[in-house]
């Protein structure tokens, strides 16, 4: 198939390379010249702007994949590229957009008779070699037309249309919320192991658990790799960002009155990781000193 691809960041560039390996014709654009030159050297057609990208695509119905940061960047790209397209063309948002934004964008584009597909994409930097898990939302007919792209990007059984517009990003949102909880459980478990009276080899334990254990997973494989690189993680600061999906998942649980204490605490722990000396900790220490005379550590 033929596809216009906007956004050649860490995931976008590798997705283009995987699509090229699958025999698709890709017209690519990014704000930076270096990734454009890199993918054009592998067979992609370079575009210097959005107008040129659309012009270099063939006959309608055309398809454009947007792979830029969620929020305003995605909104702006979609607003800029939509007037360049015609009825029957499709825009695919493969970023981590909020599902309610995707529902709104689908409705706005439908007024222009442009199809919209939200493709929740998981796979990270390993997607080029292992494939990307794709959770796709949109009309069944449009998703079927674009299926060769999804099948090339995904490993075997790694792609599914999960529902109407917004369903793909909703499913990816919950996926990432679960990811927060899993990562937090591993982090707490390995800290308990490290604090034990035994001289435990955390890399070996991570490797062991991946052979027949009920907690085996790809995340555990990555933990093994991390401990192999730096056994005590001395070169890693315990500062953990969140990219939004965990927050949205917790917000959705509140909105739907669905209890999700593990996911909420995992998110809160990420917030705490960014505070070297939290004010609430200071308040707790001051209160313990006031009511019980407990010693207070001073800086």
UniProtKB/TrEMBL annotation:
Superkingdom of the organism of origin: Bacteria
Domain 6-phosphogluconate dehydrogenase C-terminal: from-to ranges: 168-295
SUPFAM superfamilies linked to this entry: 6-phosphogluconate dehydrogenase C-terminal domain-like, NAD(P)-binding Rossmann-fold domains
One GO process term, biological-process aspect: pentose-phosphate shunt
SMART domains per UniProt: 6PGD
One GO MF term: NADP binding
Entry keywords, A to Z: Gluconate utilization, Oxidoreductase
Pfam hit, one: 6PGD
Matches recorded under NCBIfam families: gnd_rel, PRK09599.1
Family label: Belongs to the 6-phosphogluconate dehydrogenase family.
Protein name, per record: Decarboxylating 6-phosphogluconate dehydrogenase
UniProt organism field: Eiseniibacteriota bacterium
